[in-house]
Amino acid sequence: SKGASGPIGFPDMADAADQSFLDRMISQLRSTCKYYTGYPKDLGPSRIIPFTSERQFVQLLHEGRPVVVAFTIKCTYTQHLDKVLEEAAATFYPHIKFVRVECPKYPGFCLTRQKNEYPFVEVFYNPEQAASQGRGVDPNTTKYSVKVLPFNYDQSVYGFREYFKKHGFGYSERK
């Protein structure tokens, strides 16, 4: 039987030219395509807020903006989710906040969500407060009416964008 012939592993000049064309194409794609996430962008400082206490979390909710919460444990999928969250948090900052909870550190908060598959994402928001846009709320109040929606879209910046549109969250994007 005849297989592929010719030397393998020795690129000739045509391959080198193709390679630089590919590099140019990728950089063009990176600079122009809104949804291209194959390479990390320079996002600046992280916009993800680490969860430190329920009190801190309630204060964040009092700001009246939707809060996307990622409940995580250490696993390879969490590493992928972290990259998505970093990009989404930078894209929708400051209109939508992103919080990461490391569940092994805060089991009480995570167990109240009654989920057993990690990582998962939920969106917390207060429709009344969003309507009154930030009227003063006593920061000592710990009881707080908040809606929680499961995030069941594609875990990507595009997925978050579509989700926010569907639920009518006001945001603008940083390009």
UniProtKB/TrEMBL annotation:
InterPro entries: Thioredoxin-like_sf. Coiled coil: none annotated. This is Thioredoxin domain-containing protein. It comes from Eragrostis curvula (weeping love grass).
